[in-house]
Amino acid sequence: MKALFDRYLNQKIGLNYHTAYHIDEATLTLAADTYFGAVGAKDGVTHYYPYSAVIHVMEKAGGVEVGGLFTHKHLWPLVVKVGHVVDVGPMV
Predict the structure, then answer these.
(1) pLDDT-based confidence at 9, cuts 50/70/90?
(2) Distance (Å, rounded) from C-alpha 15 to C-alpha 52?
(3) How far apart are CA 68 and CA 49, in angstroms?
């Protein structure tokens, strides 16, 4: 996984860092042996994930198109989906 991420260091990628179901733009800033880091374009925060949290990776030279029926489509050369812990409050 590190070799793949190394190719996109300091480039903009698609990453679901904010919510599980929405891909946003991030800049890949680190590809270590067991984890990677990316700065979210919306929040400016560096998010770190172990490679074991990666659920799905998509790569395409012309860009992977991401977007829904009613949203603007984006193209990124690499799109990464990571797993999220679902917050569940008490049921009353």
Answers:
(1) very high
(2) 15
(3) 25
46's tokens: 């560096």
Q: What is the pTM of this model?
A: 0.87
pLDDT tens digit sequence for 19-72: 888 999 999 999 999 999 999 999 999 999 999 999 999 999 999 999 877 778
Listing DSSP states for the chain in one string gives: -HHHHHTTTTSEEEEEEEETTEEEEEEEEEE-SSEEEEEETTT--EEEEEGGGEEEEEEEEEEEEE--TTS--EEEEEEEEE--PPP-----
Whole-number Cα distances in Å, 39 to 23, 36, 90: 13, 11, 32
